[in-house]
Design brief:
CATH superfamily of the largest domain: Exo-inulinase, domain 1
Number of helices: 2
CATH class of the largest domain: Mainly Beta
Number of strands: 30
Shape: elongated
CATH topology of the largest domain: Jelly Rolls
Strand content: 35-45%
Radius of gyration: 23 Å
Distance between the termini: 56 Å
Structural class: mainly beta
Oligomer: single chain
Largest sheet: 10 strands, antiparallel
Number of domains: 2
Length: 456
């Protein structure tokens, strides 16, 4: 009888690159072995899942395995597999992934398991779908590029021959040529191939589309991109298609709102957007002088970080935005409380989820909430905050009055209406500034990138 011997430990626990002790396969690549896990430790602290409740370490008659025993209660911003467990803190360019896998669901026509790679956030990744039957949506290699999955495979099989036994899969990736090859059981002839250069690096992981399965003896050979070389710290929330670059260097198609050196593009906040609409240009100009003086006194660029000293007012973008995508790295201290206003409207919440004074306000649910919503959902679907003192990454997409928010690679708000806090009887303003809110705490921001979207 199988029994669970440990649930996922999702905190950062100082993992080492080689988590398990199984012997690595020989002679398959010249790339170095950078990660392995045979799960015999009974711990899965080297992995991060979209829904921890759906995964566990399970003991079988052949030893411990990583088991996706349930379906993830997680939403994805676009149609793609949502049952994912990614190798934590390892980002690669070229790689070879070698893994044993076992489908545990009752046999049916769409039985499947998946391998993920080039994963930069919840809406930008590649995946291999090993499906029992083949069509344009199954048993193919796919790209997810801020849109529903798209088939990119140029070769595939008639279907993956799933049984209840263990199988052997291998995935190879060469970034320069764009080559992607998939092997299943027979390691001499690929069952799938594709060529694509959209994502030059990313995270690697395993899972299913909507089934269940076990994984064991995971070996990752590859060229590792060190965290200090990438623009954001979290392993699953990198800017789209961004190659290794210094902080505050925008990915293709985005503009840096913070240049890492000064307050160019930012200004002090004058009242709120509703009040500004009733002011004359002369009144705004006079107030702007005072607001800018306050901003310069309390906001500054320091070592590539936009830092607020806990005094003064919020900071406001000089430019107004309509539909857009925004990346923003942020960090707070204990009891920290902040937020991001979009189109001048509160707010995408940032706070210390353990602060006792805010527990009655929902802080324990985590950051990313549309906290001022009254009729539409206001709290995040999942808590995704990193520990206090560590960097976090928002990806925010706003189209019309709908907002989607990814925090540290997890979708916490999915296409929810942002209400007009200032005028409750009206929809959200069509344009407005991006504001960095403060509540009298020291705050840190960097890697703030924006891409304006065409109006639909």
């Amino acid at each position: 009888m199988r029994r669970s011997v440990g649930l996922f430990a999702w905190a950062l626990l100082g993992m080492t690159a080689i988590a398990g002790a199984a012997d690595a396969p020989k002679g398959i690549t010249n790339l170095p072995l950078i990660f392995s896990d045979d799960f015999e430790s009974g711990s899965s602290s080297s992995w991060v899942a979209t829904d921890p409740a759906a995964w566990k370490i399970e003991k079988t008659d052949k030893g411990h395995v990583l088991s996706q025993f349930g379906k993830s209660n997680t939403k994805t911003p676009v149609r793609s597999p949502f049952n994912r467990a990614m190798i934590k803190d390892v980002t690669v360019s070229d790689f070879v992934l070698d893994v044993k896998l076992q489908s545990t669901i009752k046999d049916y026509g769409h039985r499947d398991m998946c391998l993920f790679f080039g994963c930069q956030d919840a809406a930008h990744l590649y995946y291999v779908h090993l499906g029992k039957q083949t069509d344009d949506h199954a048993n193919q290699i796919f790209i997810v590029n801020n849109a529903d999955r798209k088939k990119i495979s140029t070769k595939t099989s008639s279907g993956t021959n799933w049984t209840d036994d263990w199988h052997h899969a291998r995935l190879t990736r060469d970034v320069k040529s764009g080559s992607i090859k998939v092997f299943f059981d027979n390691m001499t002839e690929p069952v799938m191939e594709a060529t694509d250069t959209t994502f030059a690096w990313g995270q690697v992981g395993v899972g299913t589309f909507d089934d269940t399965g076990n994984f064991d003896n995971v070996f990752l050979f590859g060229t590792k991109v060190e965290p200090k070389e990438v623009a954001v710290a979290d392993q699953q929330a990198q800017p789209v298609g961004k190659k290794a670059a210094p902080d505050n260097t925008p990915p293709e198609g985005f503009t840096a709102l913070f240049n890492g050196k000064d307050l160019t593009g930012w200004q002090g906040l004058v009242k709120n957007i509703k009040e500004r609409k009733s002011m004359t240009a002369e009144q705004i100009a006079a107030e702007q002088i005072k607001a800018d003086e306050s901003a310069k006194a309390h906001w500054r660029a320091e070592n590539g970080v936009l830092l607020f000293d806990g005094k003064g007012q919020s900071l406001c973008s000089v430019k107004d935005y309509a539909d857009f995508e925004l990346y923003c790295d942020w960090k707070i201290e204990p009891k920290g409380d902040s937020g991001i206003y979009v189109r001048g409207t509160p707010q995408i919440q940032i706070w210390d989820s353990s602060a006792e004074a805010q527990l009655g306000n929902g802080a324990e649910k985590g950051s990313g909430s549309l906290w001022n919503n009254a009729k539409n959902p206001r709290f995040p679907d999942v808590k995704a905050d990193n520990p206090i003192g560590q960097w976090n990454t928002f990806f925010i997409r706003m189209v019309g009055d709908k907002v989607t928010i990814t925090l540290n690679g997890k979708t916490v708000v999915n296409n929810v209406t942002l209400e007009n806090y200032w005028e409750r009887d009206k929809p959200c303003y069509e344009t407005g500034p991006i504001e960095l809110q403060n509540h009298g705490n020291t705050l840190y921001f960097k890697n703030i990138y924006v891409r304006e979207l065409p109006k639909k």
